[in-house]
Amino acid sequence: MSQIEQELFQRLSDAVVDMDEDEAVAAANEVVERGIDAYRAIELGLSAGMERAGQLFDEEEYFIPELLMCSDAMYAGMDVLKPHLRSDGVSEKHKVVIGVVEGDTHDIGKNLVKIMLETSGFDVTDLGRDIPPARFVETAKEIGANIIALSTLMTTTMEGMGAVVRQLSEEGIRDRFKVIVGGGPISQGFADRIGADGYAVNAADAIRLARSLVAPAEAAA
Amino acid sequence: MRRDQMTPLERLAAYGAGAPIDRLPCVPIVGNTAARVIGVKVGDFRGNGALIAEAQVAAYRLFGYDIIRIFTDLYTHAEAMGAKVSYPEDETAFLAAPAIADLSQIDRLRPADPYRDGNLPQHLEAMRRAVDQVGDEVAVTGAVTCPFTNASFLVGADKLARLMMRSPETVHHLCEISLQTNIAYAGAIIDAGCTPSLTDAMSSMSVISPRQFREFSFPYLKRLIDYIHGRDRKVTLHICGKTSGIWDAMVEAGADCLSIDNDADLGEAREAVGDRVRLMGNVHPSEVMLQGTPETVRRATLACLAQAKDTPRGFIVASGCSLPTETPFANIHAMLDTVRDAGWPVRC
Q1: How far apart (Å, rounded) are the C-alpha atoms in residues A133 and A152?
Q2: From A1, A211, B41, B71, which residue has the greatest number of CB atoms within 10 Å?
Q3: For chain A, what is the domain count?
Q4: DSSP 8-state symbol, B216
Q5: Is A152 near chain B, with CB under 8 Å?
Q6: Are residues A128 and A50 in the same domain?
Q7: pLDDT tens-digit profile of B101-158?
Q8: A130 with A213, same domain?
Q9: Does A51 share its domain with A135?
């Protein structure tokens, strides 16, 4: 990596951690002007910064407001770089369908997981909130998702997660998708009971889980 | 199994005075589970204070716990200020849209009138009826959604979080009008013969930092608590999720009792602030109360007793947060029965 690349990637990363949208855009523009590879700038600059922000969140240095501001800076830089991504050389991404289950509109947790998944190189389809079980299944089939990620903060809506797993089984396609669950009232015990493939206690844990679930498939292929 | 020898009011009064009691106070925080007790749908509570009262009084009589709390969901204040709330036929209501879609509409926001706006009048009606029926034996409280949490329902939680960084004065404005709604409603609750019960989900360290709590939540909480103290009522404050870094501030805001969520450590809370405030908590509402068996509830209840029974300012055995609607009755009975069996002084 050239010195100038290294400096620009560091600026992108710092801009994200410092929640500085303007600086993220300025550094991204410089990447483009100098003809530096946009994919590497995203991965080694913006995403690296978001991972540092996630680390600060784990350490209770940052909280949800800071993480949201970091992600705003990351996406601002991303908007500049994305049109310059070369389609070749970018490996096929693992696909995730994510959403908050029907009857619940608390979506901060889901949004954080989405941001961190995108940061980690997953291709995320965000259905939003208050989503009926059938829509998760339909969308997962449509885009050929690897993972279905379900979120809720309310105990009243936990059962919707079980309904997604049941529908996959009824359609005979359960083994085509990994189902992961998370949110305030959810536990590993609940995940086991409904037959989900995994439970994550927070956004960072969700990334570890998602990576581990797609890793064996890669090894087999 | 032992039977209760005192009414909840007698028990709490004696406990507060350091006099002998038959058992520790116990509050599985029953919300919409009350609908199941009288066989109605959760959605039927909407706009029907008489039915809320009937269900809450029946639930109290069935289980024999120590505080009745008139509560259906967190959104009653925001709804009264213009937020859209969705009411599923038989599940807990949820926020469909904040009161304003755009900050340009912020001048439209007004404090709610508890006697006129949204479902607040019906909740007050439920309180008056509950007091009429059982007010001579048990305390009836009304749930108040505190300023910072209510502010998040006025503009949306994501937007509020960003405003904290980009426009702190806007957040203060939203908290201030929420506080005005809270004070008016708290006053009406007290006039109905009840006690306000404060709940502040978004002020949690699971969402904001202790420093942000100090800046945006604390000043308004303190003024709300000062008002309630001025009306000669004690204050229980519940903040969801992680709270260890703000316990001191919660005490400083004036709370008399902290309701500790299952994501926080009850033993640590006793060490940190148990000499200054009463504690309640913190059996896990979903993992234990909803999904567990009476035996898991018994073990979890005993674990709470072991951690906090000797809290200097007192301890109320409780769930860590409101119980899920479908919590099995046997599990609620099991919590009470465990506390009855432990007796006084507590054996566990």
Answers
A1: 13
A2: B71
A3: 2
A4: I
A5: no
A6: no
A7: 999 999 999 999 999 999 999 999 999 999 999 999 999 999 999 999 999 999 999 9
A8: yes
A9: no
* Spatial CA neighbour of B306 closest among B337, B333, B283, B272: B283
* Chain A CB contacts of B207 below 8 Å: 63-64, 108
Residues 6+ apart with CB under 8 A from A5: A36, A40
A105 and A182 part of one domain:
yes
pLDDT digits (tens, 9 = 90+) for A104-156: 888 888 998 999 899 888 999 999 999 999 999 999 999 999 999 999 988 88
Whether the ipTM is more than 0.85: the answer is yes
State the CB neighbour count (10 A cutoff) for residue B40.
17
- Most A-contacting residue of B36, B286, B331 (CB-CB within 10 A), to test interface: B286
**pLDDT tens, residue by residue, A49-89:** 999 999 999 899 999 999 999 999 999 999 999 899 876 55
Spatial separation of the C-alpha atoms in residues B51 and B297, rounded to whole Å: 29
> Contact A153/A183 with Cβ under 8 angstroms?
yes
User: Cβ distance A184 to A151 under 8 Å?
Assistant: no
Interface contact flag, A154 B285, Cβ < 8 Å: no
Q: Which of A63, A84, A105 is the endpoint of a domain? A: A84
